[in-house]
């Protein structure tokens, strides 16, 4: 991922969060509405994420969005961009895992600060995924 990409400077943690979770305050409704996108995806979901967020993935992996970690939901949005989005955009390619190390670093920082306590259970489940994806029992403990 060494190519130079043009980053959408209007992209924000709030836009990422809204895309992934929607604007609903009732988390059970969010889960019902988004479960298929989150866990079953498919080419249509992959294409939507690729078209909207490819440049954001590259910017995040280059460290250009590290300032998002200043707030818990910003950090969560950065984890989504680094952990979930590449798995859709680069499905069945080694590039799907190219941002994993940076995603774990963001998660490490969040846990050191206790940011996860400010998030809902569904949000936390996505925040913690970089450890699960690491397939390292020590990280999952």
Uncertain runs = 1-5
Order of helices and strands: HHHHHHHH
Whole-number count of domains: 1
**What's the average pLDDT?**
87
* Major sheet size, sense and barrel closure: none
How far from one another are the termini? 31 Å
Q: What share of the residues does DSSP label as strand, in percent?
A: under 5%
Q: How would you explain this protein's 3D organization?
A:
- The protein is mainly α and 141 residues long.
- It has one domain (29-140).
- It has 8 helices and no strands.
- Helix 3 (43-61) crosses helix 4.
- The protein is globular.
- The termini are far apart.
Q: What's the gist of this structure?
A:
The chain is built from eight helices and no strands. With 141 residues, it is mainly alpha-helical.
